[in-house]
Amino acid sequence: MLSASPEARFVATLPPIQDLDPSQRDLSRFPIQRCSLPAILGVLSTLTSDSPVLHQRVEDALRSDPGLCLWQMTRVAIATLRASEHSCDCDRVISPTNLAKGIIDDLPSSFAATTSLEPHQHGTSSSVDTSAYWSRLDRAAQHFERLPVERWLEQAEIWFDAMGVKPPPALVSQFRQFRIDWSQSNPRSKANCTEDPVNSMTLNLARLASQQQHHRTLHECFDQSINRVRIAQAHHLAYGLSHELNNPLSVLAIEADRLRLELGTHNSLAAIQRQVHRAHGMLADLMFVASPPELQCTEFDLGVTVNHVFASASAAMDQANIDWRWLDRARINDDGTGHDEHPITIHADESLIGDAIAAVLQNAIESIQCDGRIGVRCQLANPNQVQLEIFDSGDSSDIADRRAALDPFFSGRESGRGLGLGLTRAARIVQLHDGTLDFLPGDVAGCCVRFTLPSKVDPDESGITLGPRTPQ
Question: Of 3-7, 263-267, 317-321, which gets the smallest average pLDDT?
Answer without folding.
Answer: 3-7
